[in-house]
Specification:
This is BAR domain-containing protein. Its main location: cytoplasm. It is found in: Cytoplasm, Cytoskeleton. By secondary structure, this protein is mainly α. The protein has a single domain, classed as Arfaptin homology (AH) domain/BAR domain (Substrate Binding Domain Of Dnak, Chain:A, Domain 2), CATH 1.20.1270. Helix 3 packs antiparallel against helix 5 and helix 4 packs antiparallel against helix 5.
Length: 215
């Protein structure tokens, strides 16, 4: 216990260690969720950019491209790649990687609310202890005040200890759960097919464009 102002503050070192571990995991998991979503967004942006390039080439060739089929072939290759990307990566990535990470992170708001409630109960308990201490050191004319304050202190203590014990037990369990829960997602990520399976088609399309203009 320590003094802060006129209220003696209760410290639970063991709980504080577990909460710090939880905060570290929360920050890392939230960042992982953000980066995982960013990866998918980047993939979509890349395929969208490829499609715009194909449309620009098609417009650049105009009727000449329609005759020899060069620009249309390239555009079709890009469309096929876009479709294959969605089929081979977008869906599986969302199902096996992004959604499990998001579900894991969805626990955090409830846990944080419980931690907040625990801290409020601790403040209530410390305030009641300070009130009892003051009544003991300087008795009030109303002799019933001290017994009432002591009873309220016991109630505040019980409410605080219940939440404190719950969090002290459950936080390590959640921290330990992160490995078996998220490992399958990382394993799935390594098994998702590469998205450049049609890269050779795109390169061939570019080469045709270059040759047509003597580049």
């Amino acid at each position: 216990m320590s003094w802060q102002g006129h209220v003696e503050k209760t410290n639970d070192r063991d709980y504080e260690v577990e909460e710090r571990r939880y905060r570290t995991m929360e920050a890392a998991s939230t960042r992982l969720q953000k980066e995982a979503k960013g990866y998918l967004d980047s993939l979509r942006a890349m395929t969208a950019s490829q499609m715009r390039i194909a449309e620009t080439i098609d417009a650049f060739y105009g009727d000449a491209g329609a005759k020899d089929g060069v620009s249309r072939s390239y555009k079709q290759a890009v469309e096929d790649l876009d479709a294959e990307t969605i089929k081979a990566l977008d869906g599986p990535y969302r199902t096996t990687v992004l959604e499990p990470i998001s579900r894991f992170c969805a626990y955090f708001p409830d846990i944080n609310e419980c931690i907040k409630k625990r801290n409020h109960k601790l403040l209530d308990y410390d305030a009641m202890r300070a009130k009892v201490k003051k009544l003991v050191e300087k008795p009030d004319k109303d002799v019933t005040k001290l017994p009432r304050a002591e009873k309220e202190t016991e109630m505040a203590k019980a409410a605080y200890e219940q939440l404190n014990e719950q969090l002290f037990t459950e936080l390590p369990q959640l921290i330990d759960l992160r490995v078996p829960y998220l490992d399958p997602s990382f394993e799935a990520l390594t098994q998702i097919p590469e998205t450049n399976m049609r890269k050779d088609i795109l390169i061939a399309g570019w080469k045709k464009c270059y040759r047509k203009f003597g580049i």
